[in-house]
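Researcher: Go.
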Amino acid sequence: MAPALCSTTPDIKLGHLDDVQELRRARPWLVPDRYVRENHERPSQASLLHSDNVPVIDISNLSSPTEMAKLQSACQNWGFFQVVNHGVETCLLESMERVSREFFMLPLEEKEKYPMAPGTIQGYGHAFVFSEDQKLDWCNMLALALQPHFIRNPKLWPTNPANFSETLEMYSAGIRKLCQRLLEHIAESLGLKPYTFNEMFGEAVQAVRMNYYPPCSRPDLVLGLSPHSDGSAITVLQQDTNSVGLQILKDNAWIPVHPVHNALVINLGDTLEVLTNGRYKSIEHRVVTNEKIDRLSVATFYAPSYDLELGPLPEFISRNQPCMYKRYNHGEYSRHYVTNKLQGKKTLLEFAKIHPEINDTIGYTH
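Model: Structure:
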């Protein structure tokens, strides 16, 4: 029997249509209209068969000019790469994946103790939803702020599983060190002093989002996560190896990011695109679903202090490369980002892009 497409079903409460795990459990064949994408947004089988893959960087070998050149190429030509020998212990990665999966397997009533309020991105639920007719992603998520401590909402930190908070704290400390180390190497790849970004960012903001993508009977109709770039400086993604779901947009083609055992996926965010005046770009990416296999990922977002004023660094502005972005307050951009739905790179371009016709009034510094 062909999967039905409808907006209601008598055995599921209307509110439970927004929870894809409950929907999948009660009616595995059902894909409600609110999840069905327009034709031009739907994933194609061709993208799943693409053979290219993002570069893999050995962090322990970045003192080598060859490996540093690979990093520079990855940042400039891909905006995405995977890292191995990254210093985060395998047992910690496994523990974080385990407690995340245990949380998502809890009864809905337990998970709903940590609700994500509309217009926010902390708690359990759907983020970036601002209208009743907006298409939903085929995903359940738990998002939490980590650093600085004052941005946390302790009431949204699950107490079940019992070791959830302890595991997340240890995991996040390890990922934070990795982010700082990566920013040193990225600065070096740009010809800057290693401490440039870490010193500039002050008390950096860190947040985590756990994503669970249940199987979908019609993966050709839905998206697990809408296309977007990240508002961070860098994002660290831990993805399980069960299935390929993450895709990046490169040369107008959607390329899958095949998981590498014990590797972490790194992508550059909008902040680094602005600071480098477009030399390194944040890349649009999305998630597709699978008909038979679920997928779990843990994304950590690392960004400057909210009170930092950002703009292209003088080193990257010249007569041949005019200033492409205005200066702005990072906190204001963060608020703008979380109060708009995911629409490719539209969020950054509308907020910070300088139109070519006004570039002549800005001048250049080199």
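Model: The chain has a mean pLDDT of 87.
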